[in-house]
């Protein structure tokens, strides 16, 4: 693994999931691997889990961590090529990425979708510009996606780890996993939902899960992410017999960035969960209680949300371990 | 010691003070104790001394430190139970605390009083919610108070250490310690004053000091903090024969959060200090010079304010050492 | 070296440059030197390169690093003596510096010019107040300038290292170095230009370079910085035969803090570079592309800007190494 921008960078998903579980069982086993290696964590947006879990994972591996909030610790970065920089961006990503790449062995980047221009968001400009300019042919600097405009692969890997752990406990061979849209008053990116589809489709292809997506009409995700997943517009029907309910809000992809409905009946309550096969509830967090999910679902033994967040540490550690092993 | 929220969490105050003095004499003696242990420092409010001294103390003990400014690095947290989260708080403390607790072995929290609703402030909701949700029965995650709505125990412990050191140098058996209110134009929390009362009352009960509080009428502190301390409304009378003058402003507790007077005659000048028994001046800092205390007091050899702040490192180290020793 | 505030603190410039090159060749050779030593990096202003490179250099030397953004992590600091502190500054530098000095073995400070009051800026109040109050005679706490109102010596040292490296590669005995003003719409400090003059004048005095400054009329730098450098108002004439072009914008010193012209003909293009002796282009970054320098200059093999920024790590490491060696 050089970069970790999406599932496409993973050569062996089963091995990566197992590596996460190994890290969880023995967090400090590879502490020599990161000695005198530095990861820079660059945040264009706020973060709680990603910030702390990635820092922790890096430290478990013996790495040094440097954190920078762009536009707060430093200044805004221009991403477009060939422009006359007479606006509010004081530095170009060509310089910023190259310079950070000289100080760091690995760079993590968080940059959300702006939800204004779909093509621009889906081009993943920030990730690609950093990947292009951070290193050189002779000294590549791996880029780790800490949630980008269209994907959140460290979350998806943690989700895979969580389902794998839970499956084993429950002795489920090929559980039914349902991604359900949840209501929200603010327009949120599609990144977590896209990424979850991408990774669950891979797990479905290898026979590890059955994967279903449910959402109101108008909330269809991009075809390249939905892939062959079964899409059901009736939430109750989708929930029937489900082993894992994965809740998430996203704004419309087709009417880009818009909130088309806030229909509260899509919020997950115990009545919904009772339709499942004693299913577990998952959410990437943060979650607005009683708006998206009822208190009694989140506080029930059926909720996996804390374990899922805890597994972020091990997904980051699995990825960083493989990246460190590939560094010269 | 599991949590360190207030004096009630201290089992042996003399031993804790001595542990701070030992750390000061030999800062790196326990560097193996914190190996592969991580403290998360979570700031709802600004900080200089607490931020740096706690980080330093943790590093002296060999710990890793992760720092997060809530609402700046991440987003606002909902503290109330059972609410529909459709406002500006994106995450509930139930999730945030539990997740941070999974990444950290110890959590420090700073969250000031809002000074709007006395009952709410005095319930210490933020500390208690973190203490409730950060860990589990099987894996408790100690919470360290980095200044809460009503207390600042790391400051009070540093104050005890400072007085202990100074007493020994000056060969004072049972010095007279006076907490005096100081004028200020802004409404400040009662936390430092409350906490100082709590800890000095304990020192008075064991015969280590005599403790007196002086302030204008209307600035009476909460009864549970004043305890048996002698309250004198005449500042000159209170200062007579004092060995230690501890200055602090606070807003009214009875007319909650209000500035009732800014009477400049309560500011500590050399004239005031001359009423004492060649007394030392203490203040937790930051201090507004010439508004609360005259330059020539702060710059005189009678001032202990820098030593007091320096002792914050050792109070934090004593607390963290005991917490680490109690971790499995 | 005790403090590193300006060139005046350097006893042997050649040795310091060599120390930087040695660190670059062998970054972790002195990792025992900084063990259990802590540097505090205090930012009154934003930073990217300085923040990351100084942190990295300190970690290479085995130091612990604590970072604080004044006015964001903490509150504003009063720098004036004897004032009644009834404004927006909650703490005086006398206390802040002394306290930070008790937690840190070395302190780095970044504080830009305000460009309102020339005398005030040129007195370098922030640096001098920290240098005055951070330590004591018995325990001095070295102050490192991370860019002050009138100087940026870590940048200048990196510039010297960069020229030295490049000179050796190009077998240049005494290259012609030209500092040129560049256009910008915002008033920027003179710090980088001042400092570059100060250090290049020293290099010129020892016969290592020939140094020329070029800028529009009205942009004359302070006499104490320009020194004996040759000033040419015609940019083309100055560029003729140059080996190194060092670009930088600054606001007027004589009409203090004003933007007198934004003449785009002063921006460096390939046409300008073609006047030189196949010269290299340097800039401290951040640089606004196509406003100050054309894309094709920055992206050409003639550009040294990334190497220059990379050398910030080694200039910081050379300085910190010497400071650590001088600590008791």
Automatic annotation (TrEMBL), chains A, B, C:
SUPFAM superfamilies membership: Aspartate/ornithine carbamoyltransferase
Residues engaged in binding N(2)-succinyl-L-ornithine: 147, 184, 248, 288
From which domain of life does this come?
Bacteria
Which parts of the chain are coiled coil?
Answer: none
Q: Which residues form the Aspartate/ornithine carbamoyltransferase Asp/Orn-binding domain?
A: 206-321
Q: Which PANTHER family match?
A: ORNITHINE CARBAMOYLTRANSFERASE, MITOCHONDRIAL (PTHR45753), ORNITHINE TRANSCARBAMYLASE, MITOCHONDRIAL (PTHR45753:SF3)
What name goes with this protein? N-succinylornithine carbamoyltransferase
The upper taxonomy is:
Bacteria, Pseudomonadati, Bacteroidota, Cytophagia, Cytophagales
